[in-house]
Specification:
A 6-stranded mixed sheet has the order 2-1-3-4-10-9. A 4-stranded antiparallel sheet has the order 6-5-7-8. By secondary structure, it is an alpha/beta fold.
């Protein structure tokens, strides 16, 4: 079995060591003897999302966010189709503001950055979730939340953070979140294996 991972714009979106999410996922997959192929998708590349089993978009420098949002606009329908087919897409940090283009949720901008350690839970897996926030963007929508927070900033001044639809997960939490939470990484690994088996 081979899992193909697409890493969107790693040059522009690589703040806070967020590429550690892919390292953690790759390691967990390889521990199950699964071959992993990671492809960097850069600004000069076409983005054929359907060729990937997992797509990751991480936190980046603010000056790049609008540019990348414009780059992804032509692929909006393809990304939505990918989500509707239960393929796995993870967005962390301020990349949640980029994927607002899908119109699945609304983003709220804050003049003063939200900075906090994170502690919470999720319906995806057992155990606590830990991470960090350092962002000026939070999801405003409070439907289809990803995490219930005991510590940190949630959507629209609540204790509910992030957004999920099928296997699309968007969160302001960094850390890197997969490197810090083996339970969440294991959930994604099992989801990827299940999806791959169902393709056959």
């Amino acid at each position: 079995m081979k899992i193909k991972i697409g890493h969107l714009y790693p040059y522009e979106l690589t703040l806070y060591g967020e590429n550690g999410n892919l390292k953690a996922l790759k390691y967990a997959l390889e521990q199950k003897d699964i071959e992993v192929e990671i492809t960097s998708i850069n600004k000069e590349d076409d983005f054929d999302i359907k060729t990937y089993d997992f797509v990751y978009i991480g936190s980046g420098r603010p000056e790049f966010l609008e540019e990348i949002k414009e780059r992804l606009e032509p692929y909006k329908k393809d990304i939505k189709d990918y989500i509707n087919k239960d393929k796995v897409l993870l967005a962390t940090g301020n990349s949640i503001a980029i994927l607002e283009l899908l119109r699945l949720y609304e983003i709220e901008y804050y003049d003063k950055r939200k900075v906090s350690d994170i502690e919470g839970t999720t319906s995806l897996c057992n155990g606590k979730i830990y991470g960090f926030q350092n962002t000026e963007y939070l999801i405003k929508t409070t439907k289809n939340i990803l995490f219930s927070l005991e510590k940190g900033y949630g959507n629209n001044e609540t204790c509910m953070e992030g957004y999920k639809k099928n296997n699309f997960y968007a969160t302001s939490i960094i850390g890197p979140i997969l490197a810090r939470n083996d339970n969440l990484t294991s959930y994604l690994v099992e989801t990827l294996i299940k999806n791959k088996k169902e393709e056959k």
